[in-house]
Specification:
The complex is a heterodimer of chains A (108) and B (115).
Chain A lengths: L3 E4 L2 E4 L5 E7 L7 E6 L6 E5 L3 E2 L7 E6 L2 E6 L9 E6 L7 E2 L3 E5 L1
Parallel strand pairs in A: 2-11
Antiparallel strand pairs in A: 1-3, 3-8, 4-5, 4-9, 5-6, 7-8, 9-10, 9-11
Chain B lengths: L1 E5 L3 E2 L5 E8 L7 E7 L5 E7 L6 E3 L7 E6 L4 E6 L8 E8 L3 E4 L3 E5 L2
Parallel strand pairs in B: 2-11
Antiparallel strand pairs in B: 1-3, 3-8, 4-5, 4-9, 5-6, 7-8, 9-10, 9-11
The chains are: A mainly beta (108), B mainly beta (115).
């Protein structure tokens, strides 16, 4: 089973700042890494697929990078609506499909 | 695309429950479908996936042998039969289209296992 480790667990930033979230895989997942955003009381929403491709309707301030075992989600300039929990997920070797434990992005 | 889960309830340990997910706005039979759960205050956990035809099914080890995923393509509906429920199965259960990622998701249905 591929284990995904996200860091930091919590990130405290202010609107307008740049956010950098990390996801590390226990073995290579090539580029088969996905990012989701989840706001309180809502279902997760797809942000980035295949490491660097924005999903339909996702603003350009969201970008993904990385391959192999190290991946990054970057939000270039935080908007108030971006404060949420972010999860990574791998589809390289499944079952099982695995998620990271999440990074909570909170307002400083 | 709209996914609408139902069937969540309070059930005693050892009990059974069947969840449903009604899909609209897509050619249902052409898409694999999945269940993903989230325990209160916790992260996301993949539970199960079924192919578009229903011929292939996959399960997390934590539910294998207790849960059964199925679908009725004539009704555009996905199911999750949950038996021998445990306290640790308490979670919001989401259905989602699986196309190498989960998108879109339903709004979720809450299953509580407690005496």
């Amino acid at each position: 089973e591929i284990v995904l480790t996200q860091s930091p667990a919590t990130l405290s930033l202010s609107p307008g700042e740049r956010a950098t979230l990390s996801c590390r895989a226990s073995q290579s997942v090539s580029s088969y890494l996905v990012w989701y955003q989840q706001k309180p009381g809502q279902a997760p929403r797809l942000l980035i697929y295949d490491a660097s491709n924005r999903a339909t309707g996702i603003p350009a301030r969201f970008s993904g990078s990385g391959s192999g075992t190290d991946f990054t989600l970057t939000i270039s300039s935080l908007e108030p609506e971006d404060f949420a929990v972010y999860y990574c997920q791998q589809r390289s070797d499944w079952p099982p499909i695995t998620f990271g434990q999440g990074t909570r992005l909170e307002i400083k | 695309v709209l996914l609408l889960e139902s069937g969540g309830d309070l059930v005693q340990p050892g009990g059974s429950l069947r969840l449903s997910c009604a899909a609209s706005g897509l050619t249902f039979s052409t898409y694999a479908m999945s269940w993903v759960r989230q325990a209160p205050g916790k992260g996301l956990e993949w539970v199960s996936t079924v192919s578009g035809s229903g011929g292939s099914t996959y399960y997390a080890d934590s539910v294998k042998g207790r849960f059964t995923i199925s679908r009725d393509n004539s009704k555009n509906t996905l199911y999750l039969q949950m038996n021998s429920l445990r306290a640790e199965d308490t979670a919001v259960y989401y259905c989602a289209v699986w196309n190498s990622n989960f998108d879109p998701w339903g709004q979720g249905t809450l299953v509580t296992v407690s005496s």
